[in-house]
Design a protein that fits this description.
By secondary structure, the chain is an alpha+beta fold. The chain is about 15% helix and about 35% strand.
């Protein structure tokens, strides 16, 4: 922790003096908000790269070029016209989606609308292709076997390399779902289809949600509005039951893992052994405080052993499948926060712990893969800076080495053998840089140093620093954006932008400190904009996150009020003109702050808010709140239905008309409570939109929010 503080002190001493380059243009919302007509003009230039083995390929509209990793020289591999000529018609309009899965073979993989091609760029011809059902909903392609698993009408299909298709399931329906992500995409689950390494076997989820209550979403576009049922398991209610099947493409048969009764259990982090003989997954109880890492025979489905277990008095959240060492199939790495921070552990195949490879008061964020030659693991972490992300390697003895710059926020991709990374990163002072860097510590090759497009604009000054949390111990990071043309002798209204929930943060060491375009817009309109990452947010360790357990919003609000105290201490902030805005968990926080501390904020805008956690989904809600049955006091204390009568300031609630995440029942119930209590929030719905507004609706949304603050806070 002392090292962190030293870094932070240096960082913020520099930042507080930093001024943005000043142009003359003023921003528009279209410039600042994704979906705006001119938004791309304010985003730094980039280049798109893919790896062909350890060779970097630069992708563009008209051509793909191979780049010399040492000199930067490049030459054309093939062109868009050559691809379309080989196909026989104009199929592709750019080459940004090309991949190169076969190192050493001059093959480019192209895909579009369920069709796959292998294009040999030496022969300038298509050497393989396959058509998949154009109505396929979810597709998972195996680059070795050239087989494709896909879903259609809730059922599962597998097509071989010739396109011959087998229907694996026949009973798919809204109640029985095959091949989709389960457990509401919690526990790191992003998909429902998992090929074995060589593509002989396919592991898949089967989700029985017949016992889950259907939330009545409404389609307003039909002549008479139509009910569209959404199977939404609410906290404390019946949840879906999941089983894991294994389909053998050679034997054309399916078996299911013998995992026992799936009631009130979560199956996640599915992984395969290198030899395809074993399937691994983590099994979690509904209380989410006991996880077992279990091995199964891929042929019989029988359990072969529990390799390790994790328990926690609050919750365990496994989010990463194991990864076997490419040079030793008898060892794997496992990520865990069981000692307070997410770290990498080395295990033997029988579940014996060999060594904790990373250690310290920092979080491993992503494991990118392995350098097979050096026998190292390549990963990203915030070791160098709590609000940064940099790239590191660690050997089997636990010796860590930084790869490239430690400054900023890095999003690297690893070459096939782990010899190089393509490092796409930014920092508060760097718009974007893309470097090719050897993972053994060699010299970096710069592919791009982008200009800062905001230099043409009048950009407000920004400050990042720390304040103490309400516990008096934890450091909380804040970002302050001053009004454009700031005059320190004036008093300005201030708006707190808040999220505050787990698995997210707002302040980091990326371009402009991760500032939102809307913050810049409001600063241009004369507001001080403030944001604080309270306890409960990500990348700060387990204790920092679990401080909010069973009482979501309580400690978070205490921390946000520490931020308000700091704001009020600034001589140019008008403490009588404070606003607050947030979306989703931030909508919950906004409404909580307006009704729990009604004398602090004059105006609030809450988007897609959680109002009562009993209306939220089982997996997320019960992890942080337990069930309404086991934690009635916590649910009562955090319910905003009980606080509707406290509302004093102006509050607008905004909701997507078909929000599948925070269902509209949240907002409707709050309005009913306010009516009963005699308070008067404002309401705005986006018909047909989900949890977030996209495209032109997003521009409209931010204009609407801005108008509300202009009307009631200025």
């Amino acid at each position: 922790m002392k090292a962190y503080k030293a870094v932070a002190t240096l960082l913020f001493a520099t930042t507080s003096l930093m001024t943005m380059a000043q142009g003359t243009k003023l921003f528009t919302l279209e410039d600042l908000i994704p979906g705006g007509g001119t938004y791309r003009q304010t985003v730094p230039e980039t280049v798109y790269t893919e790896w062909w083995g350890d060779k970097c390929i630069r992708l563009d509209i008209e051509e793909c070029r191979i780049v010399d990793n040492k000199t930067g020289d490049s030459k054309t591999l093939f062109t868009l016209s050559q691809v379309n000529d080989a196909i026989g018609k104009t199929t592709f309009h750019h080459l940004y989606n090309v991949s190169f899965p076969l190192a050493g073979q001059t093959i480019a993989l192209l895909s579009q609308n369920g069709k796959y091609w292998h294009f040999d760029w030496l022969q300038k011809r298509i050497v393989w292709s396959v058509d998949i059902d154009p109505e396929a909903a979810i597709k998972e392609f195996n680059t070795i076997s050239l087989s494709t698993a896909y879903t259609k009408d809730y059922n599962l299909y597998v097509a071989d390399d010739n396109g011959n298709t087998t229907q694996v399931s026949t009973d798919g329906s809204i109640d029985i779902v095959y091949g989709e992500a389960v457990h509401r995409n919690e526990f790191g689950i992003e998909k429902g289809l998992f090929w074995s390494p060589k593509g002989r076997y396919l592991a898949f989820y089967r989700m029985d949600q017949s016992m889950v209550t259907a939330f009545p979403q409404v389609d307003m576009t039909t002549r008479c509005a139509t009910v569209v049922p959404d199977k939404y398991p609410m906290a404390g209610e019946a949840s879906h039951k999941v089983t894991v099947g294994i389909y053998d493409t050679k034997g054309k048969k399916t078996i299911y893992l013998d995992a026992g009764d799936p009631t009130d259990r979560y199956f996640t982090n599915i992984a395969w052994s290198p030899d395809e003989s074993t399937v691994y997954m983590i099994e979690l109880n509904r209380d989410q405080n006991h996880a077992q890492f279990v091995a199964y025979d891929a042929v019989t489905g029988k359990r072969t052993g529990v390799l390790l277990e994790e328990k926690n008095s609050k919750y365990v959240e496994p989010s990463h499948p194991i990864q076997f060492l490419p040079w030793d199939s008898n060892k794997f790495i496992y990520q865990s926060r069981n000692e307070g921070y997410n770290h990498i552990y080395l295990y033997s195949a029988d579940g014996t712990l060999i060594k904790k490879l990373t250690d310290g008061e920092f979080e491993v964020i992503d494991v990118l893969g392995f350098n097979e030659k050096k026998k190292t693991i390549v990963y990203t972490s915030n070791e160098a800076n709590p609000i940064g992300k940099s790239t590191w390697s660690v050997d089997m003895k636990g010796r860590r080495t930084a790869i490239g710059s430690k400054e900023g926020w890095h999003n690297p991709t690893l070459s096939a053998s782990g010899t190089y990374i393509a490092d796409n990163y930014s920092s508060p002072e760097i718009a974007r840089k893309i470097d090719i860097i050897p993972t053994n510590g060699g010299k970096a090759l710069n592919l791009l140093t982008a200009k800062e497009p905001w230099d043409e604009y009048k950009t407000p000054k920004m400050e990042v620093g720390t304040i103490k949390a309400a516990d008096g111990v934890s450091d909380l990071y804040y970002r302050l954006v001053l009004p454009t043309d700031f005059d320190p002798t004036k008093k300005y209204p201030a708006i707190v932008y808040v999220y505050g929930g787990p698995h997210a943060h707002n302040i980091d060491a990326s371009r402009h400190w991760g500032v939102r375009g809307w913050d810049i817009w409001m600063a241009q309109k004369g507001y001080v904009m403030f944001c604080l990452d309270n306890r409960g947010s990500e990348h700060r360790g387990l204790a920092f996150e679990q401080a909010t357990f069973r009482n979501l919003g309580v400690e978070e609000m205490k921390d946000q009020l520490k931020g308000v105290d700091y704001l009020k201490s600034l001589p140019y902030v008008d403490g009588n003109r404070l606003g607050v805005h947030g979306w989703s968990f931030g909508g919950f926080m906004t409404t909580s702050l307006m009704t729990t501390y009604p004398d602090v904020f004059k105006v609030g805008v809450a988007g897609g808010p959680v109002i009562d956690w009993k209306y939220y989904e089982v997996m997320y809600g019960e992890r942080y709140m337990d069930t309404p049955q086991s934690n009635p006091e916590g649910y009562k204390n955090t319910s905003l239905l009980n606080k509707a009568g406290n509302l004093k300031g102006r509050l607008m609630v905004i909701h997507g008309g078909n929000d599948p995440v925070c269902v509209p029942q949240h907002t409707y119930s709050f309005l009913r409570a306010c009516i009963d209590a005699g308070t008067h929030p404002d309401l705005f719905f986006y018909p047909g939109d989900g949890h977030n507004m996209m495209g032109t609706d997003r521009i409209h949304l931010h204009e609407h929010i801005s108008r509300y603050f202009d009307d009631h806070l200025k």
